[in-house]
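Proteins fold reproducibly. Next comes a concrete instance:

***
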Amino acid sequence: MLKRQSIVEIPSIAGKVYLVEGEEESILVDTLFPGSGKRIVKFLTKKGIDLRKIKLILITHGHIDHYGSALELKGKIEAPIVIHELDAEGPRKGINVHIYPRSLLEKILNLYVSRQRTQPFEPDVLLEGEEGDFKDYGIEAKWIRTPGHTQGSISVVLPGEAAIVGDLITGKFGFLKKPAYPLWVEDKQQLRESVKKLLNCSPKIFLAGHGGPFNPEEVKRVFLK
């Protein structure tokens, strides 16, 4: 029987990284923009976390602010980089996977975001299909494909505990503790279905890449009203 795990949040102005820490092994979820690896390692070391326990660098989706420091971190903690195959084009080309601006603000921001580039690399492991688990790594959690923001977006669910959702849900502008739709929604209905899928896993809290944490009831009210 797998022992209980904990989640360590690594905050920054640019977003959040999460460590799902088991008794013997751990998984790092997302890596922030390029150049963030040193700060992430410093934070973990200061917390007394053994970097040798980290067995996976899991990327929630193919945007540079989430995978940008993955290659740097791989060199420091010697763990494979994992992403869903539908978003692998991002790191392979060192770009953001396709962004879908809806509002005038998003169209203006897209002028900057579409020009972002970083060092390309080949992910070590490509996830396929709709879901899987981490039991081989001693972690009682699963990944679920949760499209809507991007096609290859995934969320990490610790059943009955928490859901780490990347950019599927973000903090509302000016009110980061309140859940809202992210910038760059590829498919709004698909995003709602992904949120519904996560709510069916009964997490006690939603942990996002930007803003939060979010209460499930408030998430339900915003996305499934």
In short: The CA atoms of residues 27 and 56 lie 5 Å apart. The radius of gyration is 16 Å. DSSP finds seven helices and 13 strands in the chain.
